[in-house]
Design brief:
single chain, 308 residues, alpha+beta, Beta-lactamase, 2 domains, five-stranded antiparallel beta sheet, 10 strands, 44% helix, binds 6-diazenyl-5-OXO-L-norleucine, Glutaminase, acetylation
Length: 308
Amino acid sequence: MAANINNNMLEAILAQVRPLLGQGKVADYIPALASVDGKKLAIAICTVDGQRFQAGDASERFSIQSISKVLSLVAAMRQYDEDEIWLRVGKDPSGQPFNSLLQLEIEQGKPRNPFINAGALVVCDMLQSRLSAPRQRMLEIVRQLCGVADIAYDATVARSEFEHSARNAAIAWLMKSFGNFHNDVSTVLQNYFHYCALRMNCIELASTFLFLADQGRAPHLSQPVVTPLQARQINALMATSGMYQNAGEFAWRVGLPAKSGVGGGIVAIVPHEMAIAVWSPELDATGNSLAGIAVLEQLSQRLGRSVY
Ligand code: DON
């Protein structure tokens, strides 16, 4: 069933959601993020049949933060056999805040999934073991996926997070104590913070993630990004863990695989049809974009799309 989307419809959804601005809170635990204008609101869509739609501040770049955890997982899936990855990180929702240490101690240093901070840090540790220049490699992957050559890291955001890294460092050291972290903690933290500090806009994010809507294929690349099975697996992880302890509520309201970041971005996938990126910097109590979720809820209802 072809989706009936146009830019006016997207503008109408943003207008409907705009009154929510002011109800959330811009992330301030990374000081360099606190200065972002909380009133920004954007959406962009790329469809597998080559259509592009956008509304609001869709060409303004922001810090993608935890959305990068999907890209680091993709990089690891291209470097490692399946068993090697899933021996070190699980596939289940955590039901805990993204930076929690509680479960990690109880479960002996094996993170519940690759999208909480602990899981993403294990994935970055794996990349550090196999790649000679993990930061450069990630830039190459992202630039290739979205077809934009000037995607870059925000060095100020990465530095700001490194200067306030007590909790992520504690997570990494705890995993090291259980033997599930092999490289120098501060080197891997630096890579992880740089990945989180990628600056992209909604149009770039929607085109980057289109491969997850199209069985692992990016339209402009001759080689698949991942296999059809891997694309399905990544979507499943996004559906169950992409929105942290809000995954159930998000499934109820939106019903699509998605990944959020504390910069206020969310990427959502309609399998076989489209990749959607939304941005609104104010977050709810679980660290997900408050108005961004509302935009996705309106869109999924208007289009009649859900994976459930
Ligand atoms: O490690 C952190 O806390 C941040 N760099 C990323 C957290 C994040 O984006 C969680 N997402 N909603």
